[in-house]
Amino acid sequence: MAPELARLGHIALETPDLADSMEFFHDAVGMEEVERTADTVYLRAMDEFAHHSLSLTERDSAGVAHIGWQTAEPEHVEQYAERLTDMGVDVRWVAEDEERGQGDAIRFEVPHGHTFELYFEMEKPDPPAERRSRLRNRTYSPTTTNPVAPRQIDHVQIWDPNARDCAEWLQEHLDFEMHERYNLEDGSRWGTFLSASGTKIEAAVIQNESGQAPPAVHHTAYTVDGGADLFEAGDAMKEHKVPIDGFGQHSISRGKFLYARDTTTGHRIEFNDGGYLVFDPDWDPIEWEETDLDDRQWLGGLTPGNAVHY
Amino acid sequence: MAPELARLGHIALETPDLADSMEFFHDAVGMEEVERTADTVYLRAMDEFAHHSLSLTERDSAGVAHIGWQTAEPEHVEQYAERLTDMGVDVRWVAEDEERGQGDAIRFEVPHGHTFELYFEMEKPDPPAERRSRLRNRTYSPTTTNPVAPRQIDHVQIWDPNARDCAEWLQEHLDFEMHERYNLEDGSRWGTFLSASGTKIEAAVIQNESGQAPPAVHHTAYTVDGGADLFEAGDAMKEHKVPIDGFGQHSISRGKFLYARDTTTGHRIEFNDGGYLVFDPDWDPIEWEETDLDDRQWLGGLTPGNAVHY
Amino acid sequence: MAPELARLGHIALETPDLADSMEFFHDAVGMEEVERTADTVYLRAMDEFAHHSLSLTERDSAGVAHIGWQTAEPEHVEQYAERLTDMGVDVRWVAEDEERGQGDAIRFEVPHGHTFELYFEMEKPDPPAERRSRLRNRTYSPTTTNPVAPRQIDHVQIWDPNARDCAEWLQEHLDFEMHERYNLEDGSRWGTFLSASGTKIEAAVIQNESGQAPPAVHHTAYTVDGGADLFEAGDAMKEHKVPIDGFGQHSISRGKFLYARDTTTGHRIEFNDGGYLVFDPDWDPIEWEETDLDDRQWLGGLTPGNAVHY
Amino acid sequence: MAPELARLGHIALETPDLADSMEFFHDAVGMEEVERTADTVYLRAMDEFAHHSLSLTERDSAGVAHIGWQTAEPEHVEQYAERLTDMGVDVRWVAEDEERGQGDAIRFEVPHGHTFELYFEMEKPDPPAERRSRLRNRTYSPTTTNPVAPRQIDHVQIWDPNARDCAEWLQEHLDFEMHERYNLEDGSRWGTFLSASGTKIEAAVIQNESGQAPPAVHHTAYTVDGGADLFEAGDAMKEHKVPIDGFGQHSISRGKFLYARDTTTGHRIEFNDGGYLVFDPDWDPIEWEETDLDDRQWLGGLTPGNAVHY
């Protein structure tokens, strides 16, 4: 069996001020702190069964360390390492627990400069008794947390100076599937919407409009429980004086969204609801032309802004 | 590569009065009629990309014809046919389009009498211009349909006189994965919650409490867009004088639910919201004991009632 | 007892093309047609107990005929007529049923040119049997109508060349209460938010930024059942190619909103959810300064556009 | 002008164990503690502008001290005192601040033993800076509180051994209006649904089925922001091991509900959403007969249980 990725697992972010960024990710957004080391805090969303889906590490400046993908089987990490090394990609092994909770992993750059991590093993959270849910299919009880707290990691949006090539490389070498794509009037590809799990959009690969700009991450999306929760999320962001960079519904994916930004770093969280699930094995990619609709947003809109570099 | 099932695709139901049952499935529940033959109506839910997810065929009495599963690859239908024939299972081939919109398929009984169908090919819906959505990732526009209309098929609940054996057979021979299981105080298994897609519960296999009863289907579940929609669904069912057999939230799967019943046949639809997605390849099945909670329902409750036989 | 207004009752709008405007108000927005005369259609929202809350009359051009307010007691119509006549206001009596379903009424202009109507008697809707709800506290069953159909009329927003004087006149002579007011940095009043019922905002009186512009109506607001329904409403508007002029949450009133516009006339409907109810008899008006927040909208935003003149 | 009541203001409850009851009202239900005296805690809901809407006083046993109604004008307290005294009702004056935050008030028994309090003056909450909302029309910021926290007090349900007489006395002497009433098959009145504010149901007066039982309160209802929040409320109650006594939608009032109970005292909170507002001055009371529907609940159901005596 050829190696496969199972799902988007986590994102590792960097901040020049961990305490300030925790005011955003923990106090405002409502993520749960799972564990803390000398320079890193590990966070999870409410309905996740893995140790963490986001980490914050203190560094000189804001940045993205890597995007982590869980393989379908344990041996796929090694198999991908071989495949990538054979292709001339520089693969670095990350020892078990170098990233807390995680087994042996590999890190490498994909075109044109995004750092990906592949791993299979990840600890399950073990909540203290007073935080444990009465339900066996829920880990922590969410009842004392922020009402708008994210439920599960959903996707990342990455910006690339040559996004179509990046997306095609991911399809060819890491076995991502294309679920939607969007072409501009000049025929060039603006965005490709990929999935590792085969069931939803997990990586949106977007053309960085300034061709010289380095590869970057625009946002990490987490699900919430319904459209009404996006208003609640907006309310919480505003009360915490967190800037909101967009609110509405995307045409692509049909996801409802609210973007909130950590002013310390520029990292964005998307609160996301809805869209559709693709379990169909005979899925035909959705092909959008720029002229199909007046606006890429079906409802509401976005405020332009930069993505954060690696 | 070993054959795999991709997802629950559709259920084929029988009714002694097609017009009466359409009052339930179409007028009250809100499903869309896609196509009609001499004795059968094919229906789909609002956010589905396949020809149909439910069919109603006029027969002498109410019954379940089969439960349809889509394979991961076209050649898996043949591969399963071989595997099952080798095991002594009586496999019948169903020619392309015998079931409208569908390619070659196989039908067979799984223990202890449930009729399953496996297929890969299924037409995509081609809506008339006036019903077509402006969004390329949506087929029909839902704006003129029932507000509580189902979104996507989610799972079936089947009752079996020896449910644990049935579930284990499905895991062993059709490669279902177990996501949750529930044991009674006497140590016996009451329910096993399986998935073909690997990402959610698609078949709940429940012990028929009267051991002599034949295999049956209790309900077919469809997703809606949020908890508030379950109240809307209840409202619509009541205005249509449709009996409601349960309303609340399950402990298992954490799905919120409302059960509605076609009085002509006893077939039930579950309007379902929430629960969780299992993309994790290292999922540990959730193991419930009867004593874990006072009630199998986390919230609200069910009215006891029969399932419909094949 | 001094006369009092009980509530905002209805708005009478004019259109050069009744059929086109019905595509907006009926087909897209989802209002129910109650009755039709030679030149007028009377419409109601889903949870209203009065004959109509909006009428559309065919005239040479788009316009607002009047805004109707129901008095607290039958004799208050006459009492207001006397008061206004004594003040030199030109009061015209409207005979019973000149406006369908309505008893004797008066019409007059308030500064600076808005036509108000006061009435007490209004028929109750009498739905045909097949449209009657099973619930005695609901008139028509909503189950076959648009899911985003308005529930109850909520407020009107009027634009005035001297809005503060207009608002103060309404407070002094028609006994409106002020619930909120918003001042610009130069100390001038931008908006006054009044209630006739004393329990919610029913008339927003806004400074027309071009001082020479005639009095006008920017929108008529109807409630929906929750924040998620605003996304549904947006979806329905988009599928019907109806322009959306705003989506988000107001700071003033805290109402969540979506504005949709009839392209034939420029008349706007606001789908509105939330905000707060003021039952407190000792309410202190909320006083906003322009510098209190970065934006008058707490979340999302508005597209500038004209209001429709009388 | 005759005196009038403006609205249901608060309920004063008694508990043998204040700390235990605060685990219910504060920790689980999510009400905010405003102030605390030697034996009493004052609580408010999230969207209220008055000092408190519920108080808990430590006493030997669970009980209801009184139900507080705010008058429409300051002088109405005195006017009601005179009217009631003239009728032979024993009226006791309560000095300003005897109940924290409140001006001069009167207390008295209405048939057949319910203690009512009338007052006009009530302090507005003055939140500490770190809890203050950025919105001037909101007092405390809710962002750090329980997501299911009540929004505003809505109604009380009282049980009476002769409920019809009780209701008629309230209509005649305290100027309550009847919005709905429900008759049993034997022609007797089961429930009368009254409003002081004239715009919603604020007091449900229910026939105590055991005729000899003393007057009691079954529950105090608070609004939440939508139907989905009732599922959230249920989730929070279950995680806190709080018993739930009902979940669904009432036919009368069309309110969606979830009942939760303080096991220490038996006091119940209803989380309530929806229903309708009656601004119509010409409202015809809704008249239900027992045979109109199969069940008093439109959806879901109730668990029988006792009310708490005065």
Features:
eleven-stranded mixed β-sheet, homotetramer, alpha+beta, 2,3-Dihydroxybiphenyl 1,2-Dioxygenase, domain 1, Glyas_Bleomycin-R_OHBP_Dase (chains A, B, C, D), oxidoreductase (chains A, B, C, D), 4 helices, lyase (chains A, B, C, D), 310 residues, eight-stranded mixed β-sheet, 2 domains, 19 strands
Describe this structure in words.
- Four copies of one chain form a homotetramer.
- With 310 residues, the first copy, chain A, is an alpha+beta fold.
- Chain A folds into two domains: 5-127, Roll (2,3-Dihydroxybiphenyl 1,2-Dioxygenase, domain 1), CATH 3.10.180.10; 153-309, 2,3-Dihydroxybiphenyl 1,2-Dioxygenase, domain 1.
- Chain A is built from four helices and 19 strands.
- Chain A has helices at 18-28, 76-86, 163-174, 227-239, and strands at residues 5-15, 32-36, 40-44, 54-58, 63-71, 92-94, 105-110, 114-119, 153-160, 177-183, 189-195, 203-207, 216-223, 244-250, 255-261, 268-274, 286-289, 297-302, 308-309.
- In chain A, strands 9, 10, 11, 12, 13, 14, 15, 16, 17, 18 and 19 form an eleven-stranded mixed sheet that branches. In chain A, strands 2-3-4-1-5-8-7-6 form an eight-stranded mixed sheet.
- The first copy, chain A, is globular.
- Chains in contact: A-B, A-C, A-D, B-C, B-D, C-D.
Overall average pLDDT of chain A: 94
- Termini separation of chain A comes to 33 Å
CATH class descriptor name of the largest domain in chain A: Alpha Beta
The CATH architecture designation of the largest domain in chain A is Roll
Give the helix proportion of chain A (percent range): 10-25%
Order of helices and strands of chain A: EHEEEEHEEEEHEEEEHEEEEEE
Largest sheet of chain A: 11 strands, mixed
CATH topology of the largest domain in chain A: 2,3-Dihydroxybiphenyl 1,2-Dioxygenase, domain 1
Number of strands of chain A: 19
Q: How large is the radius of gyration of chain A?
A: 19 Å
Count of folded domains of chain A: 2
Q: Oligomeric status of the shown chains?
A: homotetramer
Strand content of chain A: 35-45%
